[in-house]
Design goal:
Elements (H helix, E strand, L loop, with lengths): L3 H20 L5 H30 L4 H24 L5 H4 L18 H16 L4 H17 L5 H22 L1
């Protein structure tokens, strides 16, 4: 195991350096504002509106999709809270003074990215019921994930693991429904 420490250290240093480079986008005020907006919407607002609007836009039969998204969202929240309460990974902005915090964090620790977990979870379920939403939701989910790193709140691995967890919850829930 001791042989792996240098590898983990190098990877951690590489990842932090990547965070610093991506965070330098924040020197452009309009980009910071854009990513703040995306992050703010990605913290539930966009998804709650989508959940409510699905039956109104596509018909009452999409109420099933909305309920499915709500239930899977609750499961994803429980998974997120469980993992977040047992890990204590310091956020990138607290690790490197070269990172400018783009917006206030929701809590102290970074692992995993809850924004990304929920974005992927909701995207997969919504697109299962309504495939034409795929281009819009893929773009929004991707921007949400990117915003978390650009704003100095998450490491790329926080986002990747958040996405994987969201996908697992969504795909498992779809398999249970089918």
């Amino acid at each position: 195991m001791e042989r792996l420490y240098p590898i983990f250290y190098r990877f951690s240093a590489f990842e932090l350096g990547l965070c610093v480079r991506l965070n330098h986008i924040c020197r452009f005020h309009w980009l910071v504002q854009f990513f703040r907006l995306v992050s703010w919407l990605g913290n539930g607002k966009f998804w709650y509106v989508l959940i409510v609007l699905l039956p109104f836009i596509f018909g009452v039969s999409y109420l099933v999709a909305s309920v499915h998204m709500l239930l899977a969202g609750l499961v994803a929240l429980m998974v997120y809270k469980l993992i977040k309460s047992t890990t204590s990974r310091v956020r990138p902005y607290a690790q490197a003074s070269a990172i400018n915090l783009g917006t206030a964090p929701l809590d102290q620790y970074s692992f995993p990215s809850g924004h990304t977990l929920h974005a992927v979870n909701f995207t997969i379920i919504a697109c299962y019921y309504c495939p034409p939403l795929l281009p819009l939701l893929i773009v929004f989910s991707s921007l949400t994930a990117i915003s978390r790193v650009v704003l100095g709140l998450h490491y790329p691995t926080d986002v990747v693991i958040g996405a994987l967890l969201g996908a697992v919850v969504a795909i498992t829930s779809i398999n249970l429904v089918v």
